Amino acid sequence: xxxxxxxxxxxxxxxxxxxxxxxxxxxxxxxxxxxxxxxxxxxxxxxxxxxxxxxxxxxxxxxxxxxxxxxxxxxxxxxxxxxxxxxxxxxxxxxxxxxxxxxxxxxxxxxxxxxxxxxxxxxxxxxxxxxxxxxxxxxxxxxxxxxxxxxxxxxxxxxxxxxxxxxxxxxxxxxxxxxxxxxxxxxxxxxxxxxxxxxxxxxxxxxxxxxxxx
Length: 214
What we know:
Layout: H1 3-11, E1 15-16, E2 18-19, H2 20-41, H3 46-95, H4 97-104, H5 111-169, H6 179-213
Antiparallel strand pairs: 1-2
């Protein structure tokens, strides 16, 4: 290409008689043609689909296994239910200690009837206090039971969430060391270097042309 033609080409941004832009891309497209066609002919999402299916199956397995975790929660509920039932008797007993002791003070003939009367009167006098306090004890124990069940469920779901995160994370890990991809990248780098070299030659030709014109 004569220097004058080259200058005219530069003025027209590469499009003059011959399209310099096309010529610059030809070496690049020729070298990547094979890899380019393979990329679009290949099933790009095959590995992703396989990984996704595997992760989903693993996720379903983890969810199924979480049923065993729910058994732990149910066991916690049963245990707490028993504890709630057991907490009332000790409370009532503590409230009635004086009544039991007073009834036991009755001795002799007819003492059983008197014991029953003493104890009955004692319970009748304090029944409101005794059972109001029992309700408070029951509510407090139920709150503790709810906390225990909630903690068991929280721990179980947190563990399940960690398993799910690990299972899903594999979907975002690419196959970075695929030989075909490495080779394609090397070809692109080599082609770009050739283009840069060609541009440098043309730049030198332009400089020589300017020198001759002077």
